[in-house]
Amino acid sequence: MPVSLTIPSQRSAAESEPGEDKGWFFSADVRLRTEYLAHSFRLLAPQQDHLQFSRSQLGLRYQASSWSAEFEVQDSRAWGDKTLSPIGTDDVNTLETINAKFRKTWQVNSSSAVSLTAGRMTLDYGSRRLLARNNFRNTSNAFQGVHLRRTSANATTDLFYTMPLQRRPDALDRDSLRGNEFKLDKAGRGERFWGASYDYQYPKANSTLAAYVFRSQLSEQGSRPVADRKLWTLGSRLSWRRAGLDMEAEAAYQWGESLAGILAPKADLLDHRAWFTHIHLGIDLGSDVNFSVAYDHATGDRDPFDGRNERFDRLYGARAFELGPSGIFGAAIRSNIRSPQLRLSWQATQRQTWLLSHRWLSLDSSRDFFVTGFRRDTTGVSGDDIGRQWELRWRWKPADSPYSLELGAAYLDKGAYFKGEGGAPLNPPNVDNTEYVFAQLNWRY
Hints:
The protein is mainly β. Helices cover 2% and strands 53% of the residues.
């Protein structure tokens, strides 16, 4: 029986496309990471934090000619946290099945096929900004449902209907999280996520045009720390690359009903109208060096007392690949943000890559939450200047080796929002700039 020794970077550990080698495929991925943070931007946090994380994945798949079955387990743990350390279900999810699915494929003609996947699964779509299998984050989004895909020579159509898995223990059971205790995840009866997308490639223009619509419904009766929502998200994305230039533009509009926050009364659903946009333009400078400029904008709630919510909901997307490391850092998020960026990436050797990024961070609405900081000044007198974020990463992967090493650092030069110059009692001063470093080692089989 053949054995697969490679793992697709944005797919599950054992997953591959129909038509590849038949038989049994086994894979494993173990990652260890240490993170250090000083002078947090959060309202409540230790002065210094030093945590260790582990993530282990084991995958098994059987591939036949027109069907496949896959099973994958992921174990995510954290150690060394303090009372106010910002750990939660993004960091800890012990011994959980994230893929247990069956897929059947029908060949329509020589250039077209239809596949149906059912069971528990991880999902990636497009830019991964709104729907992703998480990579840098220590745990992964997973769903239970069905996924129908049709592929042709230049187009891909997706339809899916799922119940997102609730990672347990939840954030309210902090003692269990800190103890890395096991509790089986479940699909919430009050939570649904479904949608459709269409992606078309223009080979002659070396470009892709996509459109998508997502529906997110969340209505929990228990004590889980989430805010109810009933949202539609309609978006489009254009990417293009030619002669050393690359461009991407994406925008999405969101409407429906949502709560202002997790502490709001369940009956106080607000009219929800929000949007986000991303634009990116890069140029190859030669010698495997790329320079790019980008701009990210996600709306915030303009007035906390007007009966509307204009804060963009980021759904189930990933952010570390674009907005900076998450983990115990994670200053930037696609909600209530305006952020230009300059980015330089280069491949120093076949085994080493570097990334240097600088972002300006500001709130779209000074009266709404600085989401990752758990801060809100409803008067707006603190202003919107979060500061300037620097990021540096280095990756090294020896040839023909299962090991890889990554080192990174981030620095938040805090802006006027943290200075207390407006005298806002709801936003206490926190002027020391935030420093963050991490180191991680991967082993893949």
